[in-house]
Amino acid sequence: MSAPRLGAAFLAAALLAACADDARAPLAPDDSAPRLAASPGQERQAAKTSLELIEDDWEGGALDRDNANRYRAYALMAPEKLPSKYRSAARGKDATPSMVEMARDWSALSEPTKKEIRDLRANGFGNLQRTKETTHFVLHYTTQGDWGVPSRDADRNGTPDFIDVAAESWEHIWQREIVQLGYRAPKFTTDHAGNPSQKFHVYYRDLPYYGYCVPENVELESASPVPVGTASGWIVIENDFYGFPANDEDVTGTEVIRSGALKVTQAHEFMHALQFNTNIYASRWMYEAHATWAEDAVYDGVNDWRGYVNSFFRTPDLPLTARNPYGGAFFMQWVTDRGGVDLARRILEATRTQSFADALQSLALGGSWAGIAAFAPAQPTLGVADYATGTSVVPNPRTALLLRATHDAYPVSVAVPAATKQVANGAPWGQGANYVEFLPTGADGTLTLTVDGADGYAWRAYAIVTAKTGGTTTVPIALDGASAGTATIRGFGRTAAKVTLAVTIADAKGVQVPFAYGATLGGAVAN
Q1: Neighbours of 476 (CB within 10 A)
Q2: For residues 347 and 286, is the Cβ–Cβ distance under 8 A?
Q3: Are 235 and 203 in contact (CB under 8 A)?
Q4: What is the pLDDT of residues 246-291, one digit of tens each?
Q5: Residue 393 pLDDT more than 70?
Q6: What is the model's pLDDT at position 35?
Q7: The pLDDT value given to residue 440
Q8: What is the mean pLDDT of the chain?
Q9: Pairing of strands 484-492, 445-453
Q10: Rg (CA), the chain
């Protein structure tokens, strides 16, 4: 059915109602939280966003629950009300994680705090007095002031081109994510037969983020064996994307209508709304990695997600969920390349009965962490299919960020010591890896690599040989019961341009594990 056009007064009332108290107390947050509202990848922004600063103090105990949530609301709706220490001009990727925290906290907040947040939302979004409706969506926008969308109307249909693109994009996203990929529609938007019942609301305004999705009406269904609950939602999207990085569709980054950034942001945020109706309590790292992966699953030609890969590559030693979650789309690409595009949905749905880690193991890794070892050589070789075609205007992934060390003098003998409370050793954690690069001295020879990991861990090791012709070959290194092994690479300096040693732990143990590696260079070997 068609929803009525919403005036400012009705919209304000709707937003107040959307913030109605959840009668159920929120559960404690999971321990797989990413850096919240992280800045755009590719080291695009060194400064922390306001929400990052707030989350740092909340996690560190410097803010109580009420003030943390008031400041979260200020950061998005009234930055001038923030204490000076939380004010930042830095742009971020997504404010959704902070909004999820707010929704989980809602029933524990004081009434004055709830009222202030409701008033901020109603007073702000009530100014978006123009609307455009599609089959499944209502878009709220203005063409006036700082929140105005670009006013260009090339086809003179009375609607700004930006909103025309957005509206068409929303229906394409619905068709792709719900109809084709099989995700649950957002809560309250369809009846039991899948027919439209209520339209999903989207708001366009000036933001220091690409966008965010706000969960409402949180309902806890079960607390065991894992927390399971659902929520409805609404979305806020940046009103013009001016000043945000270029991508394969916004080639210069100066286009009047930044259609590429607009479309992938909508695909990302809508996936959050679908996640909310599957399990609002699922892993937040998975939420962001999965939603960033969805950008490419819907709009394969935009490739904005590649801009976050370098941030993911910068910390290969860490467990998956401690690495940049937006760059984690690289991991999700790897998973779905191997298991099919529907595997991402199946993992999400499995979080209704098990943790993300258990769902990942059972559905994508063959039932144990042993399968994660194959991800180690996929990183330096860019081993996901999306990189195989086309050239992106986003700067190329910098695989050198993965490297622990580079050697070009032999012999090599390195013992990575145990970490201390004061000094990290940079060695692999469970699911993490170290990479060491070996370069020829100029002579044709045989490179012999050795690896010896601390006992008691599921070590795996590979020699990744890069040929002078540009191709790569991955050679598994057999390890004995003491986690020691050797590999011999012939033609080093003649056919092989470099060799990269990848050492990883196919386990989830949370500790940096010391190991040793070495290399010797022998004489030329006859063919």
Answers
A1: 15
A2: yes
A3: yes
A4: 999 999 999 999 999 999 999 999 999 999 999 999 999 999 999 9
A5: no
A6: 36
A7: 95
A8: 89
A9: antiparallel
A10: 25
Q: Are 81 and 123 in contact (CB under 8 A)?
A: no
Q: What pLDDT score does 99 carry?
A: 97
Residue keyed to tokens 């699922």: 282
Amino acid at 294: A
What is the pTM (predicted TM-score) of this model? 0.90
What confidence category does residue 387 fall into, taking pLDDT thresholds of 50, 70 and 90? Answer: low
Q: Cα separation of 336 and 38, whole Å? A: 24
HEC letters along 259-273: HHHHHHHHHHHHHHH
Phi, psi dihedral angles at 202 (to 5 degrees): -130, 140
- CB 289 within 8 Å of CB 326: yes
Closest CA to 200 of 238, 164, 170: 170
**Rounded Cα distance, 433 and 369, in Å:** 14
Mean pLDDT of 162-191: 96
Three-state secondary structure call for residue 275? helix
Three-state DSSP state, 436: strand
Scanning the structure block, which residue is given the tokens 């890794």? 365
Tell me how long the chain is. Answer: 527
Side chain identity, residue 299: Y
Cis-peptide into 377, omega within 30 deg: no
pLDDT of residue 200: 97
* CA distance linking residue 254 with residue 318, whole number of Å: 37
For residue 122, how many other CB atoms are within 10 A of its CB? 20
